[in-house]
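Data deposition worksheet. Section B asks for the primary sequence of the deposited chain exactly as it was used as input, without tags or linkers unless they were present during the calculation. Section C holds the resulting structure in token form. Section D is free text for depositor observations; keep each observation to a single sentence. Incomplete worksheets are returned to the depositor.
Section A, Depositor: J.P.
Section B:
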Amino acid sequence: MSDINKVVLAYSGGLDTSIILKWLQDEYACEVVTFTADLGQGEELEPARAKAELLGIKEIYIEDLREEFVRDYVFPMFRANALYEGVYLLGTSIARPLIAKRQIEIAAETGAQAVCHGATGKGNDQVRFELGYYACNPDIKVIAPWREWDLNSREKLISYAEMHQIPVPKDKRGEAPFSVDANLLHTSSEGKVLEDPNEPCPEYVFQRTVSPEDAPDTPTFIEVGFVAGGAVSIDGEKLSPASLLTRLNELGGANGIGRLDLVENRFVGMKSRGVYETPGGTVLLAAHRGIESITMDRGAMHLKDELMPRYAELIYNGFWFSPEREMLQAAIDNSQTHVTGQVTLKLYKGSVSVVARTSPFSLYSEAHVTFEEDAVYDQHDAEGFIRLNALRLKLLGRRNK
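Section C:
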């Protein structure tokens, strides 16, 4: 890739990506453009600018993408009630396509021939980033330093940093007890103290949630409003997508909601353990299923639930921009036309439960389900319904007797 004279680096300002920045300058003798995305990770991002300037970078992009992230990625995913392997709310997975898309856009704006990420050669993120890159620009060149260099230990990384006058904070000199990835939807912690799945996760790993045991002794009740499958308000107050998720994070975190300790199957083939905190997302999922329960037809609901694992797997594996994900999204979004109304939830010591729901498009008919006398349902009709459904079972029973 000797024809590369400019590359766009996904840059956090941390030690690893600062080393990557200098390594790109040395190994590829190219100009580096840095791109730092604010996806709600909760860190001050301006220091990344100062660090990039220190390393001689002239084109520095630091962008607040929180609203786009929640509106165009998180909320569409939640319309599907997506869970990977039944429990994981895909907080890391759903952030990668947006970063990849914006990197490719910046490459076009700045005339860069390549993009670069800091994902390792063992994980899922390398796949997610690169599938996103190629979907947005099939001709882009990709540099993945962890698959190229020999800086494969903390000692070597710090030595390289010191050799090139890259500042190394005191708290970064030792081995970190675990690694963290965060955005507005979740935090993900893995590695080091978490590598043995038989060892319980230490309490100090959790950053966004109080321990359920330490949560308030009285429950919190909230009402979430929906329009066409998307959350739009909390307790009657209309909020933007990012503001709404931020508020749900505060409410869920204060009540110890959204912790997950999971051994999952990575796309590259190995199992890994991750500890996740998704307080707002856990509340949102319960609320969304609550409003769907009274507004969606049974057949549509059950078909959507059948499609969900496939949809979740596509996102986990990095296929956000694939035609099959877009096809599924179209079907899911079509199912949400009448998913409008309000859901009341009880948040209490690590749990979230739906306690009330109402909608102008409700399919719930009290007249049909009442235990009292009614004039809309003839119970004699059930006899023929049962006989027809039992016919094949009776035939099988007689044959097998």
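Section D:
The mean pLDDT is 95.
The first helix runs from residue 15 to 27.
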